[in-house]
Every structure is written in C-alpha cells, then in structure tokens.
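Long-time lurker. I teach an intro course on protein structure, and each term I like to show students one example going from raw sequence to a predicted 3D structure in token notation. This year I'd like something fresh instead of my usual example. Would anyone be willing to generate the tokens for the chain below so I can use it in lecture? Attribution to the forum is fine with me.
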Amino acid sequence: MLTISQLAAHAGVTVRAVRHYHQIGLLPEPERDQSGYRAYDAAAVVRLIRIRTLADAGVPLARVQGLLDAGPEEFADGVQEIDKDLRAEIRRLQGTRKRLARLAAGEHLALPQSVVDYLDRLRGLGVEERYIEMERDAWIMVAAQLPHLIDAVIAKKHEQLDDPDMVKLYNLLNGALDWPADDPRVVEFADIVERLMIRAVEAGEVGADGFDEQFVDLLDSTMAESSPGAERVVAILEERGWKGWTRIERVPADRLDSDQHSRSM
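-- Reply from a regular --
Happy to contribute to a lecture. Here you go:
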C-alpha cells in the first residue's frame, strides 16, 4: 500500500494535485488506516496516471471523468468532441492575437480597418500627425455612432480625396492648428471648403447623415475648439451662407439676413 506522497511520485504529479482530484471527485479517496493515513493501491496509481495523461493532453478536468468511465467507442467520440472544441478555441485565440497585434499598431483601438486605411492615406498625402490624431478621435466617435455605415462613409471620403481641391485642403492643414485667426490661409481654406460644398450640393450629395443633433454639436465644438483659425473658418462660411461643419448646410438668404441682423443688434 502507498502513502499519498508515494502515489503522487509514482504517477508523476504533486500531492496538491492528488488532493484536488479527491476534492472534485476524479480520484476516489480511500479510507484511512489505523494510524490515520490514507493507503493507496495499484488501481489508484493507474487511475491517477490516466487522469494526468488526459489532463496533459488538454482535456478539461470537467470532462475527464466521462472519458475515464467510457467504453472504447464512447471514448473515441468524446475525444473527437474535445478536439472540435479545442480547434474552435484555437481559432478564437488566433483571432484575439490578431486583434492584439492590430491594437499594438495604435489606431485599431475602436476603429475598423477601413478608417485605419483612410488615415494611412492621409499620411501618404503628407498630413501632419497632430491633425491625423484629431481626425482619428473624431472617427472613433463616428464609428461608434454609425457602425453599420462607417465603411460606406469612408468609401465616400476616399472618393473625395480624388478631388484636387480636397488634396489641397489637406495640404493646407499642416500647421493649421497653430494658425491665428487673421492668418491669410484661413480665408484660402474657407474658399476651398466652399467650392467643395457647392459641388456637393450640385451633385445632390448633401443630406441626412444619420447623426443626431447632439452628436453633430459635439463634433462641431471639438473642431471649433481645435484652433483660433478653425473658429474663423466657420465664421467666414456663415457670412457666405453656410452653417455647421460636420453637417454643412446652405442657409436660405432670408434666414441668413435675419441671423446677421440679430447679431448686429
């Protein structure tokens, strides 16, 4: 007969493991002898080795009991089912690793691949990193607001980058966060934005964007607070009959006159 230490040594496990297997019912706990010690026989060694072998093979302990007591056919079916589960788990872990690798790149946190590719295209145009970081944060909010539309929105942004005026607009953005409100480039920037908006209106591309008013106000205020020049661009566009930034709209002439009259009073 064997002590618990001897049993563990014969099976190649720790005494702690033996006690754990007792606790969860995998290994029957023998009666104690007259001295108060547990005494194990050869059958216990064999069962413990089988438990260790299954556990080392990756079989969850919760399923070891069923395999230990199964016949040959049932055992084979059980192993196949466990293998199927393990393959599914491997695929899940591989997906997790891919997501972690993308997160390590920085911009994949809360951003779909389409947006990351778009930001990389802006870098290719020479847009400074400070502005890209600001636009990235805006896209994180947009992607959360419209997850089902974000890829289509980005596809449209790629089309817009084929417009020379849009490229020129992004080229002007380098250093724009430091422009004072009276920088002459502010007016040039507003001129380009207006040309782009006129073409968008003529092409019927201005309309519902899926954003609620509160979200639009949040994005607009974030942009306006980014620099004194940004506030001036919005003011110039308003003077020319345009309203907003995230959702730029043509203001009817009578409403524009009324707004300007109200501000002058």
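Some talking points for your students: Confidence is low (pLDDT under 50) at residues 259-265. The CA atoms of residues 19 and 27 lie 9 Å apart.
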